[in-house]
Amino acid sequence: MEIRKDLLELQLSELDMLMSMYPGGDELVLDNPAAPTDIRRFVDGPREAPPPRLEFTLNVEVDEPKATVAMWCSFPPLYPEVLPKIHLRSKELSRQQQKDINQSLHSFLDTSDLGELCTMPVVQWIQENAGKHITLSLAELQSTNTQTAKEENKLTSLSRFWIYSHHIYRQELLRKIPALAKELDLTGFCLPGKPGIICVEGQTKYCEEYWHKLRYPNWKHISCKHREDVECKDQNEEAKFRLFNVFEELAFEAHGDYGLRNDYHMDLGRFLEYLKEHKCDYMFSIFFGVEGKESRK
């Protein structure tokens, strides 16, 4: 993968600008606090290993109606010459309105000029457009107020499924895995290659539906190695349970330059690093029966 130091410089400059505009500790939160330092070392020095991506959540305040929208950003190595990944969440948004606002945001991003920094235009877009989606969400809640009051007294079941496959190569599966997660509002990741690892988290009923549909009709060499189940009272507890902001496909360098085919082995050292970043490295020994070692930088 091509990595250009001049583009990484732009990413660091943009992050510095955002941190100066949002100095509060809970306003801008880095997924990996060490990432800016690692990127700076890569840009300034002889470090050969590619640095981690800049990924962070920016909590954007909306005035009318009063609300906070969490804007999760991930900068690909070639950003801003390619678009960043951005996903919006808010406890004030219904599931449908959260889906709608993200679709509208992606349409807005598609009109952006490549090569231009775009986080601040997105912040402005959120401040101008999130209000109508929040208002619609409130209307939906009011129209079902009686049912909502009943449901509030119930606990919501959440789960995290850790799925292991001998391998994941087929393009059909590589399309189905993330599409089904998006359809069911599940977060997590897919690590293709050999072995293949999938993690999905969200409401228990949707995790179970995902597991059923994923195996059907004939995926045989697959098992759910581990599952975690909790009960939560509200969206704040659900947010704390989730370890991942979105569902993403991981692409760590393989042993050898073979592409995604039957002899493609993922770099499990980098996979362990990823699990540690998301506070779930305990799964490495569950999957592989050994304590892992991180890849050398």
Automatic annotation (TrEMBL):
Pfam family, one: RWD
SMART domains hit by this protein: RWD (SM00591)
Source superkingdom: Eukaryota
Domain RWD: 13-133
Family annotation (InterPro entries): Phi-like, Prp3_C, RWD_dom, RWDD2A-B_C, UBQ-conjugating_enzyme/RWD
Protein name: RWD domain-containing protein 2A-like
